[in-house]
């Protein structure tokens, strides 16, 4: 890791070099988070490029909406890691990187020289973070898996059965993105560990395990105990009635969650009898009887506008939020002003909104947004840099940066 030479504050991960060898969403999403925090993320793409460049709107030109946001602030180099001619370049990149993130299956990692033994031999200080459907340390490590497969295998899809009677997929790539964030968590944990050892490490992120843990925290329920003391599932969130309620001019979430909130809400709607109602008197009672609780909220919302509801609830400090439609995010009075959204101009696609990091550091600036590079756009610069790197970069390891 290189050390900053200026007295001016730098982005949080300035000086960290990350090699991203992946495709579609999970590893690129992890790389995006690291790049948005200032890391130098070098995206290594197979011949023809990441398929994510061609998925969805704008994909016909290789500049899909997906890639415009996932690849911004990165650099790109095209390598065929499976051929001998490109192997020396990949090995120089490995020796140059502080961190490698990849969602290639174990058999492909071994073929490309991205297995832990090879990486550690080339660069003992480098951190390797791998992620795929199943643990690399299990017989299932090479089973292919995408987001839907993980939702099916982790219990996540079954939570919809618990609520609606049939399994379903979430309407967004929740497994890829949660596991991408977990990769970032793994990388930062490994960087911290190098502070004492100075040595790299291999951390594996199995998607099935990650998402099963994500699901089980609240939904393992009575099966948390051995023997079981009840059913799986958290009744409050599984009730079909648990959803935003219709107001006169839209939908809204009203959430008098604590007993104090509930007492204030009962005063607001002039129903003191609900304070002693057996299905409503305590938080535990409301959690056990969500259909009763939600019906009260639905009746309340149905007679008012979202603005009236918000004004009334805020007077009592009761949590409240109107539903923001996806097509209204940029116009929302709060989200539209969030620094995570920034207006940018793409050389091919024109004006667009970059979706960046939601984090704000009090003493670290956001890096300027750089356009997502075309395939192999940074080859010459990258080859020039690694060609000069006959030894590890100044600073030696991530530990030096963490200790400064």
From TrEMBL:
**Which InterPro entries does the entry link to?**
CoA-transferase_III_domain, CoA-Trfase_fam_III, CoA-Trfase_III_dom3_sf, CoA-Trfase_III_dom_1_sf
**GO MF terms, alphabetically ordered:** CoA-transferase activity
Keywords in alphabetical order:
Transferase
Matching Gene3D superfamilies:
Crotonobetainyl-coa:carnitine coa-transferase, domain 1, formyl-coa transferase, domain 3
Question: Segment Disordered: which positions?
Answer: 357-404
* Residue ranges with Basic and acidic residues bias: 365-387
What name does the UniProt record give this protein? Crotonobetainyl-CoA:carnitine CoA-transferase CaiB
Gene source species: Brevibacterium siliguriense
Biological classification of the source: Bacteria, Bacillati, Actinomycetota, Actinomycetes, Micrococcales
